[in-house]
Write a structure and sequence with these properties.
This protein is an alpha/beta fold and 318 residues long. Helices cover 40% and strands 14% of the residues. The chain has helices at residues 18-34, 59-70, 91-101, 112-121, 136-149, 171-183, 199-207, 220-224, 244-251, 258-261, 284-287, 294-313, and strands at residues 48-53, 74-79, 104-108, 126-130, 162-166, 186-190, 213-217, 229-232, 269-272. The chain has a five-stranded parallel sheet with strand order 7-6-5-8-9. Strand 6, helix 7 (199-207) and strand 7 form a beta-alpha-beta unit. Helix 1 crosses helix 5 and helix 5 (136-149) crosses helix 12.
């Protein structure tokens, strides 16, 4: 009998090697093509995913729940207020308990340390559904969207592709930095002073031996010029609501509007992980315009998360 492989987690895209990252994109594409046809392969049959939410969610909850169902499994929704986490139960204790009941854990939380602690103490795979530092599943969907829009069939074709990130150097930006390093892409981040990407994330990306280039600038035009993908996010993320007014003043020059998008490639696509504050970080004209791939991007969360669940939970683990 073949040995059972050790369990794997997806806490950040840095947990992957380039071939694994691309495999998830390709599997997501396959699941998208096959949706609507009878699924004979049910890799999650008889399996349950525990979904732990310490932050509000629309796309993450719905896409993971539908993905688990369509793969033959079940998803169990646990909010912090509806569990003992709200009463101070340690993450490590919750991880051990859920490992005895479920076959995988998805956690959407604040500190990345909570994701890492869950993974360290769980006996089943743990997936980062979002933390303050990383959002790996979002970027899998973003990569799939870009690859589909540009007809990319092989990972080598992603090398050198320029991605512009405009705005806050946040969790989504960090995951784009990781993905770009793994696939040898170019990422240019335009962020105001005081809102730059974390130095440890930049250092880790630049140390990878897979090519690619990471640049940080204060000039949105410089980042957008010649880009194939123009990306942005809200200026005040969950937990930063008290800073929204001050952030709006700082980030006002970083709006993704028609003038900025015209600096990108003629065939460039615009992405936003949603929800969007229309008229702030992105204009209606761009979001509803011909360059926007926002709705395709949102749908692709379902398909890449099927790929993640099938990979992590569809095979036995030690």
């Amino acid at each position: 009998m073949a040995p059972i492989p050790p369990k794997r987690d997806l806490c950040t895209l840095f947990d992957l090697v380039p071939a694994e990252l691309w495999r998830l994109v390709e599997d997501g594409r396959r699941f998208k093509r096959e949706r609507g046809f009878p699924h004979t392969d049910k890799p999650l049959a008889g399996k349950t995913l525990a979904m732990v939410f310490e932050k509000a969610s629309t796309r993450t909850r719905v896409s993971f729940e539908v993905a688990a169902f369509e793969l033959g499994g079940h998803a169990l929704n646990l909010t912090s207020q509806g569990s003992q986490l709200a009463r101070g139960e340690p993450v490590r204790d919750t991880a051990r308990v859920l490992s005895g009941y479920c076959h995988g854990i998805m956690v959407r939380t604040f500190g990345q340390d909570r994701v890492e602690e869950m993974a360290a103490h769980a006996r089943v795979p743990v997936i980062n559904g979002l933390s303050d530092k990383f959002h790996p599943c979002q970027i899998l969907a973003d990569l799939m969207t870009a690859a589909d829009r540009f007809g990319v069939k092989e990972p080598a074709a992603m090398r050198g592709l320029k991605v512009a990130w405009i705005g806050d150097g946040n969790n989504v930006a960090h995951s784009w930095i990781a993905a770009s390093a793994l696939l040898g892409m170019e990422i240019a981040l335009a962020c105001p002073a005081g809102h730059l990407p974390a130095e440890d994330v930049l250092a880790r990306a630049r140390a990878l031996a897979h090519g690619g280039r990471v640049t940080v600038t204060a000039d949105p035009a410089e980042a957008a010029r010649g880009a194939a993908v123009v990306n942005t996010d809200v200026w005040a993320s969950m937990g930063q609501e008290d800073e929204a007014e001050a952030r709006a003043r700082v980030f006002a020059p970083y709006q993704v509007n028609e003038a900025l998008v015209r600096l990108a490639r003629p065939d460039a696509v615009v992405l936003h992980c949603l929800p969007a504050h229309r008229g702030e970080e992105i204009t209606d004209a761009v979001m509803e315009g011909p360059r926007s791939a926002v709705w395709e991007q949102a749908e692709n969360r379902l398909h890449v998360q099927k790929a993640v669940l099938a990979w992590l939970m569809g095979a036995p683990h030690a």
